[in-house]
Structure formats: C-alpha cells, structure tokens
Amino acid sequence: MSENVLDFVSVKLDDENSSVIILDQTALPNEILYKTHTTKESVWEAIYKLEVRGAPAIGFAGAFGVYIAIKHSLAQDYETFYQEFKEAKDYLASSRPTAVNLFWALDRLEACVVKHKDLPVQDIISKLKVESELIRSEDEQVCRSIGEYALSLLKPNMGLLTHCNAGTIATAKYGTALAPIYLGQELGYNFKVFADETRPLLQGARLTAWELNEAGVDVTLICDNMASIVMKNGWIDAVVVGCDRVAANGDAANKIGTSGVAILAKKYGIPFYVHAPFATIDLETPTGNEIHIELRNGEEIYEMWYKKPMAPKGIKTYNPAFDVTDAEYITAIITEKGIAYPPYQDSLAELFKK
Ligand code: MRU
User: How many structural domains are present in the chain?
Assistant: First the structure.
C-alpha cells in the first residue's frame, strides 16, 4: 500500500452525489474497499454491520446519514421539515446503542435545526451540511490533542498493550488510544505494541495490527487470552484503550474484554489509560450500570470468521459487544482538554468547565 495509513479517510460526505463514502472495515486487512451509500437505510446497515465502527466514526457517519436523508426534503415549512429530520435522526440512532458519540452527533444536528428554525428550509439544510462536516473535521484536532496528552504519560521504548481498534480508521485521523503511538512514532519513540486480537470480530487483528504495521510501528499480535502472559513477562509498561461511553463516575464501556485486561493490569501494577474525546463522556449517565450494552448475534462467535461453523448447530450463545471497566481500575482518562485522575466524578466535571 503506498498511501500513508494516517491519510486514510474512513468516512466522507460526497455532497455532489448526495452520498456517504465509507471504507468497509469488514473487508480489511485483505481489501481496501470503499462503498457508496445514498440512503439512510444503507448508512444504518453499514453502522450495524460494523463496516464503519469505532465511536467517533459512527458519530459522523450517522450525522452524514441524516444529512443525505433530508437533503432533498420538499418541506415548505419548519414543522414539516423538523418531523422529517426527527424521523431520520431517530432511525439512524437505532443502529447501535452503546457509543454515545452517535447520539451526541445526532443531537448536535438537532440543536442546529432548532437554532436556525427561523431560516428557510433550504438554508437549514445548508447549515446541517456544515455542521455534519464540522463533526468530522473537529475530530482530527481532538484526537491529536488526546495523543499529545497521552504521549506525556509514556516514555520511549515502552511496551504497550491495546485492545480492539481505537485507531485512525475509527476516527477522523490518529485515533484515540493509537494517537500517542503515531505521534511517538514521528519522534522515534520506538514503542513495542501488543495488539489483542479482540474476539469475536477481530478488530485488533484485522484493524489495529494492520494499521500499526502499515505505519511501521513494531506491533505483535496476540490472542486475547495471552494478555496475562505478556504482562507477567514484563513486556507491558502501559495499557492504552479507547472507549464508547464514559459515565460521570469514570466507569468506561469499551469493546468486550477490556475490563478483563484492566483487572489484569492492576494485578501486575501496570497503568491502564482510557482515551476519550469529550463526545464520548456522558455526564448524564451516573455509572457504568446504566450504560446500554449492545448484544449481538451469536453467529459472530461461532461462524462469521470461519470457513465452517466452530460450534454445534443451535448452540446457545451470549455475545455482548462491550463491557464496562470499573473506574477503580482506570489510572487516568485522557481527553482533548487534559488528563482526568480519580476521583473521576470531580475531575471529569472540572474538565468540562474548561
Ligand atoms: O464494536 P466496535 O468495533 O465499534 O467497538 C469499538 C471500540 O470498542 C473502540 O475501542 C471505541 O469505539 C473507541 S474508537 C476510537
């Protein structure tokens, strides 16, 4: 691949053709496949099927989906337009429940509609285009800033463990948990990264290992159940992960398996860092207990990535897509406005005042 992985655009609005162009992450690492989506149904499906995934990316994919859905509205008055907008918004919001970025982005569009209610419908639509593109473009600076704060906690030659993919393709650029790795790479930090494969959908193997390898980072792929041995071997100096929703008390939902890694990190005295844009922090949700955890089809566990089924037909499954890491296991939460330390109830609220 000749293109720098950091220049990959995983989600883009093609306004001229009223479409959303999405890099199909389920085709990676074998194929770089961009798909063109011209309806809200098609964007919904891309989010649901994880063709676009990662909390920030589904936020702006959802926003673009709403925009293309109402772009050609024939509504003559605000009330009719608002109803059409709400319908598209609620529909896209039903694609995945856990990452708060999706709801945050869609609420931002709604606030834009309401703010401009006195404008002609066509002008409101123009404002929505600008707003949805801002949601995406602002994310690049947000991720860079998270990367800079995160890098201040790391030292050259460290061994880092990461889970799932919180990388450049999950965001506008840089990623969240992978941002310090990319910024460190530019400075010759020579990190040694261990990527958990991340069962059942293998975001660690297919996406993180691919991204980092393409960028020339020293990356070693391990199965999820090998995190303990690499920690015990003394190879891990810090765990870096992204997240899908942080509650007001600092409990953080991220890809299934993250909480187990955090518990192991505590056992081995390894700092565990959660990287979270403000758009992922949900002060309205008091604790992790109130976070809606997405349950997915069991077929993802026993069949999806195999040539033949790897379990008896009809087997009962339990396939939660996320788990919640209790705040007590989190050393710090790194945001674009600074680093929050326990007690998170206070430190997160303080950062929001900045
Ligand atoms: O199911 P996924 O692949 O969307 O889960 C994604 C994660 O858990 C990421 O760690 C999180 O969204 C952060 S992406 C910057």
Answer: 2
Q: Do 62 and 171 belong to one domain?
A: no
Q: Is 146 in the pocket of ligand 1 (CB under 6 A)?
A: no
- Looking at the structure, tell me whether residues 190 and 308 fall in a common domain: yes
- Is 47 touching ligand 1 by the criterion CB < 6 Å? no
Whose CA is closest to atom 15 on ligand 1? 166
Measured N-to-C along each axis, helices 40-48 and 55-70 cross at an angle, to the nearest 10 degrees, of 170
Pocket test for ligand 1, best of 146, 244, 282 (most atoms within 8 A of CB): 244
Whether residue 45 sits in one domain with residue 77 = yes
C-alpha 76 to ligand 1 mean position (Å): 40
- Residue numbers of the domain that contains 210: 149-352
Residues 237/241/245/251 CA torsion (nearest 10 deg): -20
> 347 C-alpha vs ligand 1 centroid, how far in Å?
24
**pLDDT of the residue at 1:** 46
pLDDT along the chain (354 residues), means of 10: 83 98 98 98 98 98 98 97 98 98 98 98 98 98 98 98 98 98 97 98 98 98 98 98 98 98 98 98 98 96 91 95 98 98 97 92
Instruction: Tell me if 25 CB under 6 Å of ligand 1.
Output: no
Same domain, 233 and 115: no
Residues 218, 290, single domain; the answer is yes
pLDDT digits (tens, 9 = 90+) for 278-295: 999 999 999 999 999 999
Cα–Cα nearest to 170, from 254, 246, 92: 254
Distance between Cα 35 and ligand 1 center (Å): 20
Q: 82 and 33 in one domain? A: yes
CA of 145 to the centre of ligand 1 (A): 19
Are 167 and 48 in a shared domain? Answer: no
Q: Are residues 71 and 189 in the same domain?
A: no
Active site (catalytic) residues = 244
**CATH number for position 213:** 3.40.50.10470
Task: Kindly state the helix (H) or strand (E) to which residue 274 belongs, with its residue range.
Answer: strand 272-275
pTM, entire model? 0.97
